[in-house]
Amino acid sequence: MSMNYKIKFIKKTQVSIDAWDLHFEKPEGFKYKSGQFIQVNIPQQHPDDRGQKRWFTLSKMCIRDSLYLDCLQYPQRH
Fold it and tell me: What beta strand segments (E) does 1-78 contain?
């Protein structure tokens, strides 16, 4: 089942040299289990060759109004 939500970015926290937790407000009624994946559309003026959609892992348990996504930073491609 595919559902669309608009989510509000709150902050990012660096958890290691190449990994970040991205913290968002959790949409009302959105339920998930830690470890599930979601696809996120990230509007950009100049997207790279991958376009605007990215896959993320939901990294923390479903708690209150929080939604956390894992983000790994890869070296720049030239």
Answer: 9-16, 19-25, 37-41, 53-58, 66-72
Distance CA 18, CA 23 (A): 16
Q: How confident is the model at residue 4 (pLDDT cuts 50, 70, 90)?
A: confident
SS3 18: coil
State percent of the chain over pLDDT 70. Answer: 85
CA angle 5, 7, 8 (to 5 degrees): 165
Q: Extract the tokens encoding 1.
A: 């089942």
Strands 19-25 and 53-58 come out as unpaired
Q: Which residue has the tokens 């939901």?
A: 58
